[in-house]
Design goal:
The chain has one domain. It has 17 helices and no strands. It starts with a helix and ends with a helix.
Length: 485
């Protein structure tokens, strides 16, 4: 009898183990279907910024510092606002797709264009008065003038964010983002020869590098427009409609909370670069710090792919009303992302000291980057955890809570600690980075606790209420409803 019970239990365990493996495999396929195109597109899109920095770095050390200042402060400032506000599109489109209300997705997309276009235009003076702003915050005059000149070249580049970010989230929510991966890969492929042509063949220098950046970024947007308007999204894009101007206030509210959440995260690094600019050798400090941040940010693009996957999987399952699937998906997402993070952690430890010469010929900058390589490796490892948890929050529409977490962890803990270690010890730039890591580590622990304590059944109810609130009834657009049925 005992042997029979043991055999039965063993069989049950094997079946459960086999069932678990099958569930993990199925969930992994769903995750990678969203994450892989997201990783490719973000790595390639950010790669154009990194390649441009490399070209400028080999032209002039002052312009390298100026580019670093603009890209890390001004561009990240605007990008943070637009990316954050666009994540509201990700929440709404993901939940609409999960609930089968595909016709609402095109309306959400148009609403996001209206909100983001107005927002970006309001902040354009940040680029027009770049030199004055950089002088005002105490940067060296030569670096401030270079940054002000480069700021003007960034204006056409910044406007591509209004469309590229929102369209990516629109397509990603309906699992059609492979087209963005192909377009982004082609964008990156043409950016390098285009930069070589304008910078060296036509001898346009810094201006040539910036023109190449804008041209390649708008190639991606034009490709996305062709895909959507050309009929490849028949259920989610019904053409332009006046309905996009209705119910803008709730979208603005969600966009603002999303914007605050992401901005506090992206501006964190910008504040630290600003602190580096007050060091004794500002040119070297800014250049070295921004090189490490860009390496970190380039790897972070992989994590953003998983952030997108987390948002889509969570929002889709909440839209379907499946709380258990949400919890299981979070576990698989974290496990996969951490495994990738460990791989890049080792990679940065091994090659971290050699990376600086890709961006500069200055030995002083390279030595400073070398000193930061160990801390860079730990930052890369943390990148594999907290973006996934942020994506979970975006998918559930909990951006407001995460915004508070980011504010406290980054600006109450990270920045003051970085300033303390950077200016009042011999650590200097390394001290600023240690402060940054402490802020990120605190945020990661808090997000883990927040995710663990979340009542996902309650989130299902909230998602349903949100969809009902935004839903356009069939009397307003019967053709759309009939197409969906």
């Amino acid at each position: 009898m005992d042997n029979g019970i043991k055999t039965k239990l063993l069989r049950q365990e094997e079946e459960e183990e086999g069932d678990l493996k099958e569930r993990i495999w199925v969930e992994s396929k769903k995750i990678w279907r969203v994450a892989l195109p997201g990783v490719i597109s973000r790595v390639c899109a950010f790669g154009t910024i990194v390649v441009t920095q490399s070209f400028i770095g080999h032209i002039s050390d002052i312009d390298l510092a100026g580019y670093a200042l603009v890209q890390t402060l001004s561009v990240r400032f605007i990008n943070g606002i637009l990316l954050g506000m666009s994540s509201a599109t990700e929440t709404l489109c993901g939940q609409a797709f999960g609930a089968g209300q595909n016709h609402m997705m095109g309306i959400y997309l148009q609403r996001s264009w209206i909100v983001d276009l107005i927002t970006s235009t309001v902040f354009i003076p940040v680029f027009i008065f770049g030199t004055q702003i950089f002088k005002l915050v105490g940067e060296e005059e030569a670096i401030a003038k270079s940054g002000g000149y480069l700021s003007l070249w960034f204006i056409p580049f910044v406007y591509n964010f209004v469309f590229s970010l929102t369209i990516q989230m629109f397509l990603q929510a309906q699992l059609k983002n492979m087209i963005i991966a192909w377009l982004s890969a082609f964008q990156f492929a043409i950016h390098i020869p285009l930069s070589l042509l304008l910078v060296y063949k036509l001898n346009m220098g810094v201006a040539g590098a910036m023109i190449a950046l804008s041209l390649s970024s708008w190639f991606l947007v034009i490709g996305e427009f062709i895909y959507i308007f050309g009929g490849w999204c028949p259920h989610s894009w019904k053409g332009f409609t006046a309905a996009a101007f209705k119910d803008l206030l709730p979208v603005v509210k969600l966009s603002i909370s999303s914007g605050v959440m992401v901005c506090l995260e992206l501006w964190y690094n910008a504040v630290l670069v600003l602190l580096a600019g007050y060091m004794a050798d500002a040119e070297v400090a800014i250049s070295a710090f921004s090189i490490c941040l860009n390496i970190n940010a380039w790897e972070f693009m992989i994590s953003l792919g998983f952030l997108g996957a987390a948002c889509v999987r969570v929002s889709n399952e909440l839209g379907r009303g499946n709380a258990k699937a949400v919890k299981f998906s979070i576990k698989v997402l974290l496990g996969t992302s951490i495994a990738i993070g460990l791989f890049f952690f080792v990679l940065c430890l091994v090659f971290g000291k050699k990376l600086a010469y890709v961006f500069t010929d200055d030995d002083r900058v390279a030595d400073t980057v070398s000193d930061l390589s160990l801390l860079l490796s730990f930052s890369v490892l943390l990148n594999s955890i907290y973006p996934v948890l942020s994506g979970v929050a975006v998918g559930a529409g909990m951006q407001g809570a995460v915004a508070i977490v980011n504010l406290v962890c980054f600006y109450v803990i990270g920045v003051p600690l970085g300033a303390l270690l950077g200016y009042f010890t011999s650590l200097e730039v390394k001290g600023i980075w240690i402060g940054m890591i402490c802020g990120v580590l605190t945020q990661t622990i808090t997000l883990i606790y927040l995710t663990w304590r979340t009542d996902w059944d309650d989130q299902v109810k909230k998602a349903s209420e949100r969809l009902n609130r935004f839903y356009l009834n069939s009397n307003e657009n019967p053709e759309q409803i009939s197409n969906e049925s």
